[in-house]
Backbone:
């Protein structure tokens, strides 16, 4: 037989062990990003456990959706954008988009815009 633990007693025991757990009110969304996907949890219940200076978040409930992560380039050099724009006769913005789509490959970007 297991003895039921009173919530007040459980909180006192946790405080004696140096643990502090509080619910976070009004959380609307939690987003977890990995290199390959993005997980979104709508209207979750979130609790934060503080232990020895570390914070641990517990996320429960809510509607979960997953989507593939967008691959973004950390930035395209302006000289590359100018080169592609000059070679193709397109605008700087079109050249930038083509470079981002081709992941910085100048030849691919030029071919994309000429097609």
Residues:
């Amino acid at each position: 037989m297991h003895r039921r633990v009173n919530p007040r007693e459980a909180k006192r025991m946790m405080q004696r062990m140096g643990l502090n757990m509080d619910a976070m009110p009004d959380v609307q969304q939690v987003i977890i990003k990995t290199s390959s996907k993005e997980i979104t949890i709508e209207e979750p219940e979130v609790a934060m456990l503080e232990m020895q200076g570390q914070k641990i978040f517990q996320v429960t409930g809510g509607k979960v959706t997953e989507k593939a992560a967008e691959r973004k380039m950390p930035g395209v050099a302006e000289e590359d954008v100018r080169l592609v724009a000059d070679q193709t006769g397109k605008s700087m913005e079109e050249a930038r988009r083509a470079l981002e789509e081709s992941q910085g490959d100048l030849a691919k970007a030029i071919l994309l815009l000429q097609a």
Remarks:
- Residues 78-88 form the longest helix (11 residues).
- The mean pLDDT is 87.
- The chain has two domains: 10-68, 78-114.
- The beta strands are 19-24, 29-33, 37-42, 45-51, 54-60, 63-68.
